[in-house]
Amino acid sequence: MSPPLTPSSSSSSSSSSSSSSTDSTCTERDIEEALIGSWSLLEYFSDPFDGKGPSLHPMGPDARGILTYHPDGCMSVHLMPSPKTGKKSRTALNDGFMYAGKYWVERHEREKNSFIVCHRAEMASLLHLEGRVHKRQVTLSNRNRLVLSFVGFEELNRD
């Protein structure tokens, strides 16, 4: 799923200028600094794995969301379907979700000059999201657009 996001009015202005996931001079720290602030969801969609067919909007075309990265390494994400759906309760992933925890940036193992942001879900509205590291490829084409693309999950060791 690739949710394009834009900085909200509370986005940090101390981020490094014009960071990009394809810039060979970028470091993990450059990407972390560029992410800091709050981002508003523009679109939440999923493309078919085989590349055939239209993009799907699991929460509808008017989904709402906020993603926040704090300089201390904490993050939170809140995604909700459009209020136009008329649903009275939320019980499944497509009904909206939130999670919060720590985040960090890593170089993508398979794609040169690409980065992954890892979200360690320490608490989540849906139990199957909790206790995992959610990995997303980062694309920052400019300071006004962030695209996070699904890479995978990693289970956390729970003692």
Automatic annotation (TrEMBL):
<feature type="compositionally biased region" description="Low complexity">
    <location>
        <begin position="8"/>
        <end position="21"/>
    </location>
</feature>
<dbReference type="InterPro" id="IPR024311">
    <property type="entry name" value="Lipocalin-like"/>
</dbReference>
<feature type="domain" description="Lipocalin-like">
    <location>
        <begin position="36"/>
        <end position="148"/>
    </location>
</feature>
<protein>
    <recommendedName>
        <fullName>Lipocalin-like domain-containing protein</fullName>
    </recommendedName>
</protein>
<feature type="region of interest" description="Disordered">
    <location>
        <begin position="1"/>
        <end position="28"/>
    </location>
</feature>
<dbReference type="Pfam" id="PF13924">
    <property type="entry name" value="Lipocalin_5"/>
</dbReference>
